[in-house]
Amino acid sequence: MRDSILLFKKEMIAIFRDKRLILTVTLVPFIFIPAIFYFNGIGRNTKPEKKFVIAYNEKCPYVSFLEKYNFQTVKILDKSDALKFDAWDVFVYNSKEDTLLKLYVNAAKSNSGGIIKTMERYYLSFRDVYIKDKLKSMQIDINKVIPPTIKIIRINESKNSIVSFLLPFFILIYLFSNAIGVGLDSIAGEKERNTLQILLVNRISRESILFGKLFSTMTVSLTGAIFSILGILVLYIFKIIPNAGSTLLNFTPVNFSLFSIIILSLDMLVVSILILISSYSRTVKEGQGYILPVYFIILILGMAVMNPDSSIAVNFANWPFINSLLSMQNILNGNIHTSYIVWTIVSNILFTIIILKIATILFNRESIIFRK
Fold it and tell me: How confident is the model at residue 314 (pLDDT cuts 50, 70, 90)?
């Protein structure tokens, strides 16, 4: 263990000499995450609904209803002129021979789908008002004809649902992305530069070398995850996502401890995979070819788990990586399932031990370390 600590210090000194790596690990997640939310408009105040210009040939109750909601209307008698859509978005055609009210929308416009949905929504409101007025004029009790309206009240809804889904995903991304460069370079890179032989001829055991490189890669990976959490706090401070940081700020010591242990165990699993691939690879480029498919598969699984009701989240909830993401989501939402969290941590550690055991076997084989 003493040799591993000495090698860890040596690796960290070399890492911190790389200024570009430090910026990538710290500032990139700290700035990149708020930028994603800002430019995608997540959590910002809803924009007021755009009012369209309505053209019509004959005034009808539906057009009058739209005027009450500040829709601008214009009368166009000639249908062929109206369908040119010069300065209006919808043409309401009221035919005296037909009881059907026709709404013409310019499908060439990019927002034609939104216009259609808006017109349909206002028509449903108009229809309810129209029927009620007719029933009143006929002195018919409305309550005996029209069923009661429903009001859905959401109980125990999480105010931080966006954060609880995205934060674990971003943590996984930065655990992986920050560890890839350092993890592959730590062994495969030294093979490529022919500097690994210098360590191997010393009295340091190969297990100590392996664990020293493991700890240094974990440190870099965890640093990126921590700064991604700080990036979420930036969202809260600048109100890009209201209450985004309240989940973190209101953590109980127990919740925070469980969350941290899950991240630590997940980081161990991620780094152990990288160390295994780095031990087998002859060059960094070869290692990248092995790790990128794994990385993309995990990212796809992570995106699927962002919806906790998805089939992947339900059917594969006990699988590595998926259980870590779901456990972090549950903690952020205040749903503590102790047995599931314990299983997540234990499974991460077990898989880490198995992978490191395989990596140790590979690292001790000359045919693997010095293969051409």
Answer: confident
Q: Is residue 156 domain-resident?
A: no
The encoded tokens of residue 323 equal: 């259980």
255 is a domain residue: yes
333, part of any domain: yes
From the list 271, 255, 257, 252, the residue with the least C-alpha distance to 210 is 271
Domain ranges, residue 112: 53-145
Task: Decide if 48 is inside a domain.
Answer: no
Kindly state the average pLDDT of the residues 233-256. 62
Length of the chain: 372
Question: How do residues 39-77 score in pLDDT, each as one tens digit?
Answer: 655 544 545 556 678 999 988 899 999 999 889 899 998
Whether residue 219 sits in one domain with residue 98: no
Average per-residue pLDDT for the chain: 81
Residues 169 and 100 reside in one and the same domain: no
Q: Which residues of 108-136 are buried (b: 16+ CB within 10 A; e: fewer)?
A: eeeeeeebeebbeeebeebeeeeeeeebe
Segment holding 264, helix H or strand E: helix 253-280
Q: Which two tokens stand for residue 85?
A: 């859509």
Structure tokens at 342: 């314990």
List, for residues 25-42, the tens digit of each pLDDT value: 888 778 876 776 666 555
The burial class, CB within 10 Å (0-12 / 13-18 / 19+), for 204 is middle
178, 217 in Cβ contact below 8 A? no
| CA distances in angstroms from 327 to 261, 320, 337, listed in the order given | 11, 11, 8
325 and 224 share a domain?
A: yes
Residues 289, 266 within the same domain: yes
Strand, coil or helix: 155: coil
